[in-house]
Structures are given as C-alpha cells and as structure tokens.
Design goal:
The protein is of the alpha/beta class. The protein has twelve helices and five strands. α2 runs antiparallel to α6 and α10 crosses α11.
C-alpha cells in the first residue's frame, strides 16, 4: 500500500510540474465555468415551431411572425421532431377540438404559454380555443443535460490521459527501466498509476456538478458512473503511454483518442434510437447515455446497473485485447 501511495504522490507532483498536464486537469473545470454562464442565455433564443400541415396555411403564416416554422404531415414525425435536442414547440389538432401544444418538457419557461397566446391572437382574441399540453417529461435544459455530461466525460478521459503523459515522462527518464530491479511488482506499478485516473475524475465530477448547480441529481449515481467510466479512461491512458515514445507522439495519440470519444458522444446524442445499436460496442456510448439519464433525473438504479455492466464488460474485453501490448510496453 505504501508503494501505491508513493506512486500516486509522485504522479501528482509530476502532473503539476508540466503545463500540459496541469491544463488537462484544469480544462474541464474551465469548460464547466464557461457553460454555467452560457446556460441562462438559452432562453433568449427565438422560438421554433413544428406545425401539423392539416391546420392550414393561415396558422402556419401566423406562427411564422414569431419564429421559424417546420411543417409535418404526420403526427408521429412531429412528436419525434419535438423530442430532438433543440427547443421546438409542436402544434397539432386537439383531441377535444381546437389545438394541442406538444412539448418535450425541458423548453424555456415561456414556451408553455407562447403558443397559446399566438393561437388567441390568431383568433382575434374573441374565441377561446381549447389548448391542451403534451409533456414528454424532461425538466432540465438540453444544453444543461448534454453540457454537464460532456464536461464530466471530458474530465474522466483527460485524467486517463494524464496517466499516459506520466508514463511517457518515466520512459524518457528511464524510470520504468530502473523499477525493473526494485522489489516493486508490475501489478503494483499499474495500480499505483491508476489511482490518479480514479481519484481526479471523482473530485472533478463533483466540482463540475456544483459549478453547474446540478444539486438535485443523484450524486451516488454520478459516483458509480464516474468510477466505471474511469476504467476505460485508465486503459486509454496506459495505451497512450506505452505506444508513445515522446510527448509529441503522445499528443498525436491523444488527438486520435479524443476523436473516438467525440464520435461516441455525438452518436449517443444525435443519432436516432434505431441507429444507436451500432454504438453498443463503445463503452463511451454507455457512459454518455448513463450520465445523460442521471443529469436529466430519469435514471433508475436498475438502469445504471445495466449501463455499468456494459461499461465493465466492454472494458474487460478491451483490456484483454491490449494486455500483452501494455505489459510489453511497461517492461
């Protein structure tokens, strides 16, 4: 245990001596601060409307006075459009006559009432139309949901990269070769290096949640998902370390890794549900949807357990694929 702690302390000191490593550690916090200032401005965005074509051109033209309008000839397509990432208000025929306003539930505060006001104005303020609301259930801005999960995921992955940079430094200084003649076992070295990849993401995740004022989410779920996701980040960090001969090649490998992470995150957020099965092989995908559901307060413990098992299973598979390469690189 003392050897593990010694490696952990040395990694922390090494990280804070290098500007790049310090920036990697601090970057998620800076992004969270920037996002915190951006989130309130979302409500200033102009309104968007998705209108069922059967309501007629008069309704479409009236709504165009207050924002952009998209028309749909199918109610299911209209609801699917409302359920996408951006804020858009759906207008369709009500079951009891009049109009129905379809909302995702996490739109800006005025969205619930702006459509009703436009409908009253459309009728000259004389007729009282029946307006019902369909609420899909979300309660947090989509920018806040995806922004928070992306920054937490960034913190997890970047802390794994710190491991890789520290390994590169020790390869350049021949520290790893010197450890071969000490009583320290390779497993102790790997576990000691991994402590940074576990501890820093947990600390940064809670700081990010505090900065973004997400105090109503389940922090224990955040902890579980962060720890599970850190495993794949640690493996990525070791791969960067053993595959890179110097800092320059380490940065190049880091860019390739971030491309893979970004593609998995964007796919989990932007792809339709039917196409997301093509991302099931990526543990980053399961981390993304897990964090998204936690921040949106839609997660349950059975669901988090399912996502965690996917992450652990895929991480173990990746570890066994690259175990020999990592072992050889640390020799």
């Amino acid at each position: 245990m003392m050897r593990l702690i010694a490696i952990f302390k040395r990694d922390l000191k090494s990280s804070f001596r290098e500007f790049l490593a310090v920036y990697i550690i601090v970057a998620p916090i800076l992004f969270a601060i920037g996002l915190r200032f951006f989130i309130p401005s979302v409500e200033a965005i102009s309104y968007q409307f998705a209108i069922e074509e059967s309501l007629g051109n008069e309704v479409v033209q009236e709504f165009k006075k207050y924002g952009s309008v998209e028309t749909y000839n199918d109610l299911d397509k209209l609801k699917s459009r409302v359920n996408k990432v951006d804020d858009i208000i759906g207008i369709t025929k009500g079951s009891a006559g009049g109009y129905a306003v379809v909302l995702e539930g996490n739109e800006a505060g005025g969205s619930r009432y702006i459509a009703h006001q436009i409908i009253n104005r459309l009728q000259g303020g004389e007729r009282k139309e029946i307006v019902t609301f369909s609420d899909i259930g979300a309660r947090i801005s989509t920018v806040a949901i995806y922004g928070t999960s992306s920054v937490i995921l960034m913190a997890i992955i970047l802390c794994g990269i710190v491991i890789g940079l520290n390994i590169i430094e020790e390869k350049e200084s021949r520290t790893i070769s010197a450890l071969g003649v000490t009583p320290m076992h390779r497993l102790e070295f790997i576990l000691g290096k991994s402590l940074v990849g576990f501890s820093l993401p947990i600390i940064e995740a809670f700081i990010i949640v505090w900065i973004l004022n997400m105090t109503n989410i389940n922090l224990m779920m955040i902890l579980v998902m962060t720890v599970a996701s850190s495993l794949i980040a640690i493996i990525f960090g070791f791969l960067i370390g053993v595959l890179s001969s110097n800092q320059i090649s380490g940065i190049a490998n880091m860019k390739f890794l971030m491309l893979f992470v970004s593609a998995s995150f964007i796919g989990a957020v932007a792809l339709p549900q039917t196409y997301q099965r093509f991302l099931y092989w990526s543990p980053i995908y399961w981390s993304t949807i897990g964090l998204n559901s936690i921040v949106a307060n839609t997660a349950t413990w059975p669901l988090i357990g399912q996502y965690t098992m996917w992450i652990l299973g895929l991480t173990i598979l990746i570890f066994f694929i690259f175990r020999k390469k990592i072992s050889t690189g640390l020799s």
